[in-house]
Design goal:
This protein is of the alpha/beta class. The chain is 37% helix and 15% strand. The two termini are 21 Å apart. The structure holds NADP nicotinamide-adenine-dinucleotide phosphate.
Amino acid sequence: MRTIPLGETGVDVSAFCLGAMHFGSRTDPATSYELLDQYVAAGGRFIDTANIYARWVEGCQGGESEALLGEWMRSRDNRDDLIVASKVGFPAPVDDLQQGLRASQIERAVEGSLSRLGVETIDLYYAHVDDRSTPLAETLEAFHRLVTAGKVRWLGASNFLAWRLAKANTLAEGQGWTPYCCIQQRYTYLRPRPGVDFGAQVAVNDDLLDCVASEPVTLLAYSPLLSGAYTRPDRTFGEEYRWPDLPPRLETLCAIAEELDATANQVILAWMVQSEPPVIPLVAGSTTAQMTENLAALHLTLSADQMARLNRAGIVAEGPSS
Ligand SMILES: NC(=O)c1ccc[n+]([C@@H]2O[C@H](COP(=O)([O-])OP(=O)(O)OC[C@H]3O[C@@H](n4cnc5c(N)ncnc54)[C@H](OP(=O)(O)O)[C@@H]3O)[C@@H](O)[C@H]2O)c1
């Protein structure tokens, strides 16, 4: 599989990262194993989970995805071939362990993730959501201690505003701490209405695109396919995306999909990895057919003209550069 540099770590990661959020909960273990095997057979090596996946599914508490990944890696004996990412700090009304990025919360949470995954080191450990009530220095120093102790290799941020990410990395640089090498944000082809509130989730905006174009921080896109809404009659776009920008964006997307004899989902995934700088989509599915369609996007090439049309489409005169 094509690879993309992960910030300044010196490591290249798979251009499509596999989203394992529902593995072991909504997606049963046998299907989860099948999807993981399918991704690896396609050359994929980069897998994304979090300590809270997927506690919102009935009967689950969080940790099911990490535990399933751990069992699958043991059964396949392939841990050393993979880049495994997990996360800490998504606000969840469960106990204070998972609610923030205090040093004590991070120190406890990492042990749980290491144990469920059954690994000595988590390759990429994310701050799942910015925690404005904890000083950045406390979080960064705690993360750096994990790196020094060999429990974590690299750090990522998720759901941060651009200025908070830049401030954190400036602070880390000054202190000799490990910086965030990547940022994982809500991002798809449709642009949300300006000012829309996604709760704890933060969508990519022009500030962030500018930031990743100038800083050595790789952008990863979660929810790139909006739960399949681009192609499925049983799914709809959320209100957040319903504004006058939507029709011209969709029209261009569908026209280019037709030109390429591809699906809208495939065009979005290809558009992301062919953007400059490239964006790594978190690719998720619950059936092998979905995964086959999504992985085939790796072989789709958009022309410079098609990229420009996709970038230009919409009511914003000068669209984001990626
Ligand atoms: N950092 C964060 O805060 C955050 C937040 C959310 C997600 N994430 C990460 O991002 C990953 C992806 O997120 P997401 O699940 O929200 O992504 P998504 O791309 O919006 O949705 C994936 C879902 O779309 C449907 N789908 C996928 N491919 C399809 C296809 N080819 N045709 C039709 N339907 C298709 C499937 O729905 P059904 O399974 O219902 O059929 C699939 O489960 C997660 O696994 C997680 O690792 C991170």
